[in-house]
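If it is no trouble, might I ask you for a protein's amino acid sequence along with its backbone structure tokens?
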Amino acid sequence: MKALTLLLFFINLLMAQEVKVSAIVQGKVEKVFVREGQRVEKGEVLVRIDPVLYTTQKNTLQAQVNSQKVTLEKVERDFKRYEELFNRGLLSRSEYEDWKSKYEKELAQYEALKSQLQRTERVSLSMNKYPFYGHLSTPRV
């Protein structure tokens, strides 16, 4: 098994076109399911990649989302208190806008992290599938 930073497959199509297919995640190739010259079908599994690196990255991102959620909830509670004070005329517009801005910043960070985690979870961590029909020319692992 070879270490993998970027998995590349060069695929010969019927019209003598070459298309590069690469893994979305980094990791060590555990198994290659195809060989040179083999006909491959759309959706066929080409390789299995060790999920350790991917899983570590996903877990780190989940921890960041959880931490940001706690921060957001506190800032939201504070902002609502300051908003109430502003509505009663007990807080300047400047202070109110500062808290509103802080809340919106924390909310945007939370949403960005959550979106990144969702994209990460959709990645197929253990395999790279061929996107269409053709013949495999030279796999480089």
